[in-house]
Amino acid sequence: MTTLLQQAIASRFLDEIRDEQEWQIRFTNTTNEQWDFMAEMVRQEIANSQTVPIKEVFPS
User: Fold this and answer.
1) Domains in the chain: how many in total?
2) Distance (Å, whole) CA 6 – CA 53
3) Which residues contact 44 (CB under 8 A, 6 or more apart)?
4) Residue 12: pLDDT band by 50, 70, 90 thresholds?
5) In whole angstroms, what is the distance from residue 8 CA to residue 20 CA?
6) What's the rounded Cα separation, in Å, for the pair 51 and 49?
7) Cβ distance 45 to 51 under 8 Å?
8) pTM of the predicted model, to two decimals?
9) Which domain holds residue 24?
């Protein structure tokens, strides 16, 4: 494996780790009130037919 390819793989791997750390921080810092607000937003979208079936997003 070339050095350039190794560096590209390592860079991608480190980017993924940073991304996971950022998501973990966001989830940890989300308050119950924020979760409740997001859940209510989802309920409203469902009630207003603003969602699509998951099969349309991820066909098998």
Assistant:
1) 1
2) 40
3) 50
4) very high
5) 19
6) 6
7) yes
8) 0.61
9) 3-57
